[in-house]
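hi! just following up on the protien thing from before. the input was this:
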Amino acid sequence: MGHQYKKKKINLKKWMKLFLPIDKIRFYPPQFIIRDPIMKGVKKAFDSGEEVAVIVFNIKNLRELSEQLGEQGYTQFITLLKKTFQEIIEGEIGSKEIIALHDYSSDGLTLFMKINHEYHCVNEIDQKMKKILRNSEKKLHEEMPLARPIFETGYMFIEKKHYSIQEAIMKAHQQALAMAEKRVQTEFNEMLYSVSKIVSQKEISLLAQPIIDLATGEVRAWEMLTRGPKGSVLESPLQLFSVARQTSMLYDLELIVFEKTLEQINNTGCTQDIFINFTPITLGNNRFIRDIKKLLAKNKNISPRQLTLEITERDSIEGMENFLYNIKVLRMLGFRLAIDDTGAGYASLHSISEIMPDIIKIDRSVIQDIDKNTVKESMLKGLLLVAREVGSLVVAEGIENEAEASVLSRNKVDLAQGYYYARPKALMKGLMSS
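and the predicted 3d structure came back as:
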């Protein structure tokens, strides 16, 4: 009797799915099965100290395409869609960073991607998403001219602190889907509310990581690193800045980081150089110079000469009308400029030649295991030659052990930072002399 009741219950669920309108089903939590290889891939990334991004490529007009193409044409389109995205994603990202590409959502594809860096990687994800979409749309149109998919994209990072990896994956997927669709009364609105509250109430905290002079071992400067409200979903800089970017609040958030940095300099009496991260999209904003001047006017005891603005080179500066003009004005005000992540992005040399930075920061991807890799050491030597030609100081990022540090000393790198020297901590009185 119990077995018969269970069978009827299963059949009833099937009929409910058949008769419920598709637009209603989409608002239910996704009931996909997380396969073992994905869970293992996510866990392995976490164990290696990496983050995992869930990126959704949603097709807004999938139902219309199904009706337009017919059953055979639609099946052909879905097969081509998966193949095209797989090829382009592997070409753009590289198979080592891909955990999986899967059609969890009935309206598109979901990419699980390993991430190694802090908040500035959000820019890279954003750029790669656009490039993947642009190339995929072009190839799909060449192969099937009648198929005109309209894509929506969104991404979210899987929470490491979650009690269950499966639950964390499902939650991140729902949030990424909500970001893509920007649905009313969904988690997009909750995220928008959360980041709006953080911006309006300036609910961020700053940590400082020392930048060490390799010749003397002394602390020469501090890089400010941002955290969201402690214990919240947006505590991680990856989550915080990804949501801020997708909700058009990145500019406001980065200005608050600058304002809070000035406050910390005042509170601690720090006289050493301070490095602050900015994206090119913020630096190129037509309000940026005006807003920076206002904040400096409120803190007249702080000279711009103490401040270095780090520009991530993972965002292209091309086509940014105000960017180079703002850079000239910032230099006239006394700010120094650094290019962050050199060696990791696609436009390092172009960015260096355009900006002529005071400081070049070499990305962790070049430094990692440099003591075991002669090609990486050759890359370092090449970047040092470029820096000397430009007249830039060099900072090597992400040093984690003595072997890596010894290669930098041997090559006479100016400055270094990383866990080998110190982990980020709050900037306090007396700390800057340690």
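The longest strand covers residues 51-59.
Confidence is low (pLDDT under 50) at residues 1-33.
cheers
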